[in-house]
Amino acid sequence: MTTQEPALEQYRKKLGKLEALTDKPTHYCQGCEHGELTRLIANAIENLDIRERTVMIDSVGCSVLAFEYFNIDHIQSPHGRAPAIGTGLKRVRPDLIVYTVQGDGDAMAIGLLEVMYAAIRGQPLSVFLVNNAIYGMTGGQMAPTTIEGQVTTTTPYGRDIEFTGAPVDASKLVSAIDGSAYVKRVSLAISEIETAKGKTYSIKNILEAKQAIENAFKVQMMGGFSFVECLSSCWVNWKLPTMEAKRFVNERLIKQYPLGTYKDKFGIEKK
Amino acid sequence: MAQTTQQKSLVRIVEERCKGCELCVVACPQGNLVLSDKLNRMGYHPAVWRYMGTKGACTACGICYWVCPDFAIHEVLVRT
Amino acid sequence: MTERVYMKGNEALAYGALKAKLNAYFAYPITPSTEIPETLAKEFGSEEYPDFKVFLQAASELEAINMVLGAAAGGVRAMTATSSPGFSLKQEALSYAAGMELPLLVVNINRGGPGLGNIAPEQSDYFQMTKGGGHGSYRLIVLAPNSVQEMASLPKLAFDLAFKYRNPVCIAGDAFTGQLKEDLIFPRIEAAEYDVSSWAVTGAKGRERHVINSMNLDPEVHAKHVAHLDEKYKTIQRDEVRYESYLADDAETIIAAFGITSRICKSVVNKLRRQGSKIGLFRPITLWPFPHEEVRKLTEHAKRFLVVELNTGQMVEDVRLGVEGRARVEFYGKLGGLLPTEGEIEDKLRTIEKEEIAA
């Protein structure tokens, strides 16, 4: 099963199994940032020791099977409705920590009202948006965040913004609402960097996302609405090799959707 | 097996979870991970770890652990 | 509240729900159901109803019903009320609720349709409520009050059935039963306690996690789940039928009606009985499960049925199913929000009689 088995008593665990994860192998494509997000959320749940009172609201899209991977209570949601279900649950059981994982179509198209109103109400809730600028699960159609000129199955000649409107900036929209308390955009794709030794890969993005996700839960516990937009790749539907897809995220998507903290009402990042 | 008494770190991989995405292979600064030739149950070439990589020994930095989307890189251990 | 009160049907329903220990209400206004959230908003925070902990107005009908879903998944008594166009919007969530086996109460105050229609009473959502509305193999339990008294007493029954069977329940009002003001002595309602510990989402502390889910990608697993739901519905059909049978035991003519029309039909029955007619009234209270068996039993002595509805003929089909061709079934419908007069119904009965003599 494992690659090497020397005398394990001589070692101590630096990084290990997360309680909040089940053992089920994921259905996500190779290298998909959904898997990354799953680990980062599980890590935050463990660091904050909230597994026994955390509830996840699944949504429709590639995250629909997420309930198989988190060892916590789940409620499934119709497409776009996850923040409403989370609001209903949180209002009747305010002691629970409730979060949703939604794709860009789920949150910014069919579910735009539900996300906006959760922010408007300042509802203590955490929304994690996986923005890969495409509808993944259904085979690669245009999404609200698809950028100009991007080829998808419903924009086979490239997205024409005269015709379809301009791409939606989720973090800007949500941060413009008074009620939102923590809005941050991160990238979950590993990035290529130039060093003295030549080109290498950095996980700086992922570590920043790790902190942002933990902050999001902390902000919810302080009574605020937190929203973390995670730029991701979808090499299968973008029809690019995996590492080129990661490059697309960190070079082109980032230009359209700059990373950063768009709102930090409680100053959680300074703590 | 003699080298195990000198290894300062150990990375354990659950082969059956690995999808051969190669993120750990490119991310490891010391080149300690490669895709093996064998196939796991899902039909992928799983990644394997070795203490001495192409650029040096494993420092248990944990980058492979954080970057793996499938939790196949299961544990990173350091010698006590 | 034990004294005699005088109130609208919608208000009575709100108080009935409060007395049944309603925990959460998620609102969206739509005429003619809006008095329900308005009454609850007024009573929110009142010491008389300490279990009523959450009142929230949603931004859309969809948001409201999905909030109810979330609250119901938490194991509490949650409800919302709407009217026909809003009820259409809620169908997806109701299908999910049935698939996820969640107890919740949705009130539909039927108004004129299709489309925007009008705000006057119709009974044209009968098909939508009893035969689906949403996608997939599920049923809604549908209860039809015909008086302010019943608007007050049915919410408790609705919650009892919802939690007993873990299924959504619909109270089928219409603009008349909703807007009618009548005096009533408020019924004594003993709220029950429901055990939700085996499924409710309350945080996986000291137990296996609960997954509230209606998705089963494996066809065999899904088949089992749908069969399980079907078993549940068969049990409900066997055990939970409710109806009112008025002077029907020896009747040769039966008028069948539900909701507000049954009140008018009852007057017709009384009048014609005084004139010597062997006529009776059959009023289903559960529109689903429909009392097909009881209708069939009536054909042992009844020769003809007149079904009176505020639509173009919906419950009449269920009556025909129950009658199974053993008696004549005729229909009289009144549309647009108008109510039939006793005279019109008597005229229709006379026409039927004439046709039978001529034949």
Provide structural commentary.
The complex is a heterotrimer of chains A (271), B (80) and C (359). Helix content of chain A is 33%, strand content 21%. With 271 residues, chain A is an alpha/beta fold. In chain A, the strands form 2 sheets. A 7-stranded mixed sheet of chain A has the order 3-2-4-5-9-6-10, sandwiched between helices. Chain A has a two-stranded antiparallel ribbon with strand order 7-8. In chain A, a hairpin with a 2-residue loop joins strand 7 and strand 8. In chain A, helix 1 packs across helix 7 and helix 3 crosses helix 4. In chain B, the strands form 2 sheets. A two-stranded antiparallel ribbon of chain B has the order 1-4. Chain B is α+β, with helices and mostly antiparallel strands and 80 residues long. In chain C, 41% of the residues lie in helices and 22% in strands. Chain C contains 13 helices and 16 strands. In chain C, the strands form 3 sheets. In chain C, strands 2, 3, 4, 5, 6, 7, 8 and 14 form an 8-stranded mixed sheet that branches. In chain C, helix 2 links the parallel strand 2 and strand 3. The model of chain C has no long low-confidence stretch (mean pLDDT 95). The chains are: A alpha/beta (271), B alpha+beta (80), C alpha/beta (359). At the A-B interface, strand 1, helix 1 and helix 7 of A face strand 1, helix 1, helix 2 and strand 4 of B.
